């Protein structure tokens, strides 16, 4: 028991230090010394050297050396540029003089740019003075969630509203980290771990959002902690200590309740679970080296850190701790006029919803909302050059604030690269029918913006892919590691007929539990301007009259302009098909079609949980595949501003019920991409990527094919390559 | 009228020559002179130098020089190898001594390998003697469709069955070509063309399958011809002579009927319709050169012309005049045992169905079945190196027979290449939650088999993409040129309210007519052997009992093994989701799951035409997305063996109604990929590629992730490149 006592003492000490720090926080004023700026070890123990800016891993392989981004001296140049390190420090300094922060313990949960009003941003042009810089802060002060705006120009807190909503802000990483350690301070917890034959030093624990299921989950920030054995593998996720769930108060770090079931369930074996290349046996190399090469370098530039210009596209790109990637002011050049035309004011991952399909004690609450609970961007780790992104990729760092308001750098969080898979942009060959000697083919090259968020076990790869034909493809890839359940079964032949395992037996004693993934995107379309309409183009079967035609039926496209939000609550129907357009009713093409973009789904899945099930009420933004709302600054997060332990009172589904007018208005399109995931053995011990996507596709936006005039590939343009001498 | 007389004389003469040729056809015996083998100008006027083998365009850019395929000396080495030039000549020689061919005019519509019995092929191993070579011939002799088998060993016709089915064989290219010229022999036709102000020399005509709408389309081979003006553009498709439809007897080449409507509809302008790079003005180059480079060369080999070996895959590949690409004996190597395991015995495009949505006189019959009517492979033209396929692609030629039985070579008809788009095979990074220093990422490289069929205006790109994780993705890309309709309208503001244009006004006087595309795939799955079962894994909502759980609902996977064909007539339901597995019930994984593959749809569309509409009866194979039939040699073409003017009596839908047992049998999976296409201005004058796909994905086929042991990319393996001096 010696070890436990030492641990308890350690956590007590840590707790004291934290309290000391908070109460003395204004003393921790920023200085101009770069070392201190980037040294976040004062408080944020997780903010290790990994989060320091690492120029050496940045774009190593580019033929042109990357421009070194000096975060210490960076200044914003575009109204949407994220906060710089200097601005975050200034914000922290302003807050530290603001009375509530002075007098009470606080944690900073959000500290990002408060984007200027949309009309001002739209009007702003390069060369204009930068718009006033304001900061959106969400902090818990003395147990209350405050929504603040800090004006950097005046150095004032200009708004401070205490939230009356249920739910709490995005967890800080400090919340998550401390939660994983807190159970060790509890004697009962340690006893049961040891009784299960696990060394405390082999424990790896995860903080699991509790969701909300009624009174028990109200009026305090709660989290559940479940643990795994690290013994013999880095892939502890495959070694669950099944049935042991610790309910913690996130603020006091005190254990509220321990549910200690499933002691009879063995911890699955470590063998064959480690996926690290250094650890796998029988390594195989199936494929010769292959690389995307650009002898004259990439065709894109990233101006002033965030403005991406490529081919006929231009857009602003920034990392965000909650959304991950924010694409703003996406504009495409018209091939006829040469003018840049607005397509989308802002696009981002708004929320995720990942319900697991097991109603038992240790599983029912697993209904993650990864953006609003964990911070989708906070979980986006540095990308691995040459593997996460090909050669010639440009890497962009995230600059975020820790719980104490101190900035840190998440290096290489986003990459931008050109992709060429050998695909075809357009083609036509004359056939043997006409015998004409024509064969015209254009290769397809795209620009990809990528991030990969590791929300504990799962890895979400989010791609924004821009095509020269005006199409934007948004793709979500799922990889990483399953959340698995321990079981006493080693073979399906031991499972009594009719018993529900809630998933698939993946290996001895390991069940991959069935779950869904929903990723909801916020797409503020501005097709040639802000005032747009949403049109449902419904394909209906028309029956011909007797004698009218040898045909009995054909499809007709009926256009219906949505007047209000409820007209635009769209459930896809395979046998009642429609297209969904966002058009500008005031802008017609030469022959009189309204210019537009349509949203085109690929494979998706719909939630079929009971709409009254608490998780589905919180995740009600997945009740439809498509929604359209009038633009409203405060409606950006589909699950609500405060998602953690929310009751579902502030979701997209609730806003949409207001049934506001949406015709010829500034409107926002929402799309939910879904996956049902019944795990299979191939997902063990790490999952091959499964992807799905949807497209924003021009529809009568251009007068004609916008890539008609682009050239084919010719031999003379391609590089001359040789194997590296070392290969 | 001078010109007309000359033309008439020309066609009369041509007709006479054709008749002479047919009646003297046995004289045209093959010789061993290569020049004559490859010179198909004797009869096939369309079979020009374009169809000669062109080694110079073959794989120009490969660092290794391609092996030169000498079609003259090629011999089959695998039981599924397509007929060689020698074998086609030998078949022709055997047929020419066979009495019915001697005594009557004939045309050869199909002349391909009669594949040996499946069990023999499965048993055959490299080194075994080649299985007996037989030839499947479909010929029209004296107006009757004969299905013959020619045994090359014995030199005998061993089967000759006159078809009693409605419908005719795939058109020959000679049928199509002569049809486009035949109307010129009709004075009324020429009169109306001239009256419309079109020079006969500017005419380009298309042969359009008539479908079947009742008595009028029976008992003779009919075709409809519609024409366009070539004046001022190669893209005559954009210049329809609207409303003029010539009904021809395909055998007599006589005009049966001319429907001459729409004289008031102007021919749309030629301006801005030509898509050839040499003709476009204001050329733009948006992107720097980009290339997929492989410093050590590709990782695949094509053995003996048709056996592809790549990474952990091996399969047989051949061009086919009807299906296009046939992938056979696809096997994947088990990473644990090192053994090759069967996945699919045969996969191919079985049929297409492309109904247009306009019931009026000149359009109602446009309900194409491109494989059974036009020959999907016959329309696959030589691929364009560097544009249709990247550097390092391997090109495979098609060797087919013309209407007279003489072989010809369709060079570069299929390409095989490795693709790397910068995508991720699998990844995991530990998150800030655990703080562990792990970032493991594997790049995703795939092998693509591609062909592109130009069925007159449309281009279909068909990709079979093999992944190292065992997945096969089948992707269909649509590009090429719309089939458009002339209209008197130049702007939508001229169209009376409520008038149905049957499509979109794309340019002045041009309407892109709404249509669907369905591509039906034949997938003879043999998962670890021939006897397989089809399992529907239905995800259903389970409601919890009161007090059972804070959750009200969760999803449960219910497995249902299909007993008979009707159990496996699958319509996808978004709100009643299922997975569809083909399993081997006799082969279990270590932990007792049956090994299997599942079919995973991405975006698709379903036909909602009236099931009693004649086109939908003929295309009834699109009534479900998935079907499963017991293996039957004679059931490979979803629309029936004789699709041209078929009545729908011999489709997959009819076979499936037999409701035969399919549990633990050799079964065939059928999947239909659908597209609704409401044209938009971006599709004018040539369409950016639109793609959709579906996957065959291992599900408990492997014991675990089969690509766990593959290495990440490292800098040292990648090539060192420079721009070509000429660039």
From TrEMBL, chains A, B:
Domain Copper amine oxidase N3-terminal: 169-268
Location of the Copper amine oxidase N2-terminal domain: 78-159
Annotated Copper amine oxidase catalytic domain residues: 291-707
Cofactor note: Contains 1 topaquinone per subunit.
UniProt modified residues of type 2',4',5'-topaquinone: 458
Keywords, alphabetical: Copper, Disulfide bond, Metal-binding, Oxidoreductase, Signal, TPQ
Signal sequence residues: 1-21
A GO BP entry: amine metabolic process
Record-given protein name: Amine oxidase
């Amino acid at each position: 028991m010696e070890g436990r006592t030492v641990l308890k003492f350690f956590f007590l000490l840590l707790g004291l230090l934290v309290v000391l720090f908070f109460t003395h926080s204004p003393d921790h004023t920023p200085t101009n010394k770069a070392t201190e700026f980037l040294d976040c070890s004062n408080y944020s123990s997780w903010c290790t050297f990994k989060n320091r800016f690492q120029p050496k891993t940045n774009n190593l392989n580019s033929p042109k050396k990357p421009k070194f981004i000096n975060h210490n001296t960076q200044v914003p140049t575009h109204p949407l540029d994220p906060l710089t390190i200097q601005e975050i420090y200034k914000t922290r300094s302003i807050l530290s003089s603001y009375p509530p922060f002075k007098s009470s313990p606080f944690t900073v949960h959000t500290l990002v740019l408060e984007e200027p009003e949309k009309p001002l941003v739209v009007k702003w042009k390069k060369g204009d003075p930068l718009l006033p810089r304001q900061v959106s802060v969400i902090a818990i002060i003395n147990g209350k969630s405050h929504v603040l705006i800090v004006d950097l120009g005046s150095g004032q807190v200009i708004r401070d509203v205490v939230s009356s909503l249920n739910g709490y802000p995005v967890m800080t990483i400090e919340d998550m980290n401390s939660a994983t350690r807190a159970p060790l301070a509890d004697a009962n917890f340690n006893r049961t771990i040891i009784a299960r034959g696990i060394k405390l030093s082999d424990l790896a624990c995860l903080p699991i959002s509790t969701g909300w299921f009624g009174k028990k989950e109200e009026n305090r920030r709660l989290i559940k902690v479940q643990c795994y054995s690290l013994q013999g593998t880095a892939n502890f996720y495959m070694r669950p200590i099944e049935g042991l769930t610790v309910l913690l108060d996130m603020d006091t770090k005190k254990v509220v309740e321990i549910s200690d079931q499933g002691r009879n369930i063995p911890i699955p074996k470590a063998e064959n679970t480690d996926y690290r290349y250094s650890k796998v046996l029988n390594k195989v190399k199936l494929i010769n080296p292959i690389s995307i090469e650009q002898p004259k370098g990439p065709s894109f530039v990233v101006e002033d850190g965030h403005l991406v210009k490529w081919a006929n596209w231009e857009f602003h790109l920034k990392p965000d701790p909650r959304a991950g990637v924010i694409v703003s002011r996406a504009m495409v050049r018209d091939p006829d006029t040469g003018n840049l035309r607005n397509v989308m004011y802002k696009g981002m991952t708004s929320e995720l919803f990942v319900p697991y399909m097991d109603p038992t004690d240790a599983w029912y609450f697993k209904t993650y909302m990864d953006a609003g609970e964990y911070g989708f961007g906070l979980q986006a780790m540095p990308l691995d050059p040459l593997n996460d992104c090909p050669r010639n990729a440009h890497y962009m760092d995230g600059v975020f604030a820790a719980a104490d308001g101190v900035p840190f750098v998440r290096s290489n969080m986003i990459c931008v690269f050109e992709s060429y898979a050998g695909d075809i942009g357009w083609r036509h060959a004359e056939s043997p029918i006409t015998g004409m000697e024509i064969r015209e083919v254009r290769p397809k090259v795209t620009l990809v913006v990528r991030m990969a968020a590791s929300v504990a076990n799962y890895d979400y790869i989010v791609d924004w892919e821009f095509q020269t034909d005006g199409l934007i493809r948004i793709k979500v890839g799922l990889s990483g590691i399953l959340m698995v359940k321990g079981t006493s079964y080693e073979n399906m032949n031991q499972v009594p007929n009719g018993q529900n395992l809630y998933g698939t037996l993946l290996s001895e004693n390991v069940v991959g539990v069935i779950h869904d993934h929903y990723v909801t995107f916020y797409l503020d379309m501005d097709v040639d301007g802000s005032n747009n309409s949403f049109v449902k183009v419904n394909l209906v079967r028309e029956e011909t009259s007797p004698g009218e035609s040898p045909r009995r039926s054909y499809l007709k496209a009926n256009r219906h302009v949505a007047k209000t939000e409820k007209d635009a609550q769209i459930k896809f129907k395979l046998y009642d098909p429609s297209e969904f357009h966002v058009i500008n009713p005031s802008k017609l093409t030469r022959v009189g079609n309204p210019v537009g973009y349509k949203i085109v789904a690929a494979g998706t899945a719909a939630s079929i949980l009971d709409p009254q099930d608490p998780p589905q009420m919180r995740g009600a933004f997945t009740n439809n595949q498509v929604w359209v709302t009038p633009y409203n600054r405060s409606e950006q997060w589909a699950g609500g501003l405060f998602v953690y332990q929310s009751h579902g009172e502030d979701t997209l589904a609730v806003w949409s019920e207001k049934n506001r007018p949406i015709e010829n208005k500034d409107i926002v399109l929402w799309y939910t991409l879904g996956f049902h995931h019944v795990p299979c053995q191939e997902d063990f011990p790490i999952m091959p990527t499964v992807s799905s996507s949807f497209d924003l596709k021009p529809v009568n936006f251009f007068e004609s094919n916008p890539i008609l005039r682009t050239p084919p590939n010719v031999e003379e343009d391609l590089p001359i390559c040789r194997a590296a001498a070392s290969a």
